[in-house]
């Protein structure tokens, strides 16, 4: 695998205000990346910088080892061989589906265009829709056509800016998975922008969690969930609560749910107060346990229950229990802590809550 995109200490600003700070990350050929973060964190600005629509105020963007942006110089978007897919599809309503897809390859022979359109229609699962007009298609079908149109010229990189956010929530994840499969079949390298972590998890191989213009972690979905390296990442990804703990030694933290074993950061000393990240799937009801939590809230989700439980100290934890484990509000549940990874952060004053 070769390195296709390299973002090297890039900063970007508007009118002298920096909104993307010193970002470095790289994408190998065929890998799908994602810029994930809350509204206003700078993800669209970074994507537009990769596309060549915004200039970098510091650092460099490289495509295939070639500098395409650096302070004071920007290769125009049309010379980057980069495709874009937007939130609003931007299909031409007066052109048929086939004509829309062929739009980006106008310079090719009519036979080559026809073959590429046929190939892409098959790839997106709409082989018979060439003569149809966009208005006759569903939102999901239109978005797949927008992806096919962007893929037609075989861009070296495909950039997707919130492409699923106009869809119903229940369709989004499925469409993200479908489009991912389409890109993987053609070995396309892509970068998605989204604020929706389910979409990011369904779509991307690697995800950059961004806050206030800085990339806090560039990692797999699994590691972001199980091994967040920053408190913001722990808060933003998945659900959970921070449990009060005290470092006992290099391997153990004492909490009211018992002693937890794992790797303690070098910076933590015995006796230090810490917050321990506890995910809902780390806590299981266990009749043999002497530790109890009181049910404060419960949400039935079909396959399971999500309980919010108050411990003796007043700290709360979430507990994902099987769907037959039906406890009443106010009931005291015996609990067991079953950890895979110990994630701790130096104690922070104020509410220790994760989404
Ligand atoms: N053209 C512009 N001129 C001035 N400021 C801008 C411009 N575009 C974006 N900004 C500001 O830059 C910051 C980052 O915006 P950006 O659109 O990159 O964030 P985002 O993470 O994509 O947010 P959203 O998910 O809401 O689109 C915000 O404070 C925004 O107000």
TrEMBL record:
Residues 5-237 form the ABC transporter domain. PROSITE patterns: ABC_TRANSPORTER_1 (PS00211), ABC_TRANSPORTER_2 (PS50893), PROKAR_LIPOPROTEIN (PS51257). Keywords: ATP-binding, Cell membrane, Ion transport, Iron, Iron transport, Membrane, Nucleotide-binding, Transport. The keyword tRNA-binding does not apply. Gene3D superfamilies: P-loop containing nucleotide triphosphate hydrolases (3.40.50.300). GO terms for molecular function: ABC-type ferric iron transporter activity; ATP binding; ATP hydrolysis activity. It comes from the Bacteria. This is Iron(III) transport system ATP-binding protein. One of its GO terms (cellular component) is ATP-binding cassette (ABC) transporter complex. GO terms for biological process: quaternary ammonium group transport. InterPro entries: AAA+_ATPase, ABC_SmlMolc_Importer, ABC_transporter-like_ATP-bd, ABC_transporter-like_CS, ABC_transpr_FbpC, Mo/tungstate-bd_C_term_dom, P-loop_NTPase, Transp-assoc_OB_typ2.
